[in-house]
Specification:
- By secondary structure, the chain is an alpha+beta fold.
- Helix content is 31%, strand content 32%.
- The chain contains 3 helices and 5 strands.
- It has a 5-stranded mixed beta sheet with strand order 1-5-2-3-4.
- The protein is globular.
């Protein structure tokens, strides 16, 4: 049996952590409740966006890796990519974080 938290509980904890720090988090796309993959979207103050996706590592851990970055004038392409990723993986959860230093929340979400 796998010892990972169900995705919906992990998402709820992430949202509460962000809100506890004075930020805002919202679910853009709901995936499979228990075993869904989680991706984090962060928006920069300059209008840029980044996507962190959890990737399995050789040692068995799963860490968030920056997989895509978009400049402010390329946000439509970024949104199209998110739509395609959701269509490719219906189990995928996409959560958007609006908080100072959002990368630290991706770094904390290791398992």
């Amino acid at each position: 049996m796998e010892d990972r938290l169900p995705a919906h509980i992990e998402i709820a904890g992430l949202i509460r952590s962000v809100q506890g720090e004075g930020g805002f988090a919202t679910v853009l796309s709901k995936g499979e409740q228990d075993a869904g993959t989680i991706a984090i979207v962060t928006l920069g103050r300059d209008g840029s966006a980044e996507l962190y996706e959890r990737m399995p590592q050789l040692d068995g851990t799963r860490v968030f890796i920056l997989s895509r970055r978009a400049e402010p004038d390329k946000l439509m392409d970024f949104n199209d990519y998110l739509t395609k990723r959701g269509a490719q993986d219906p189990d995928l959860w996409i959560v958007e974080l609006d908080i100072a230093d959002p990368e630290r929340f991706a770094a904390l979400q290791r398992k």
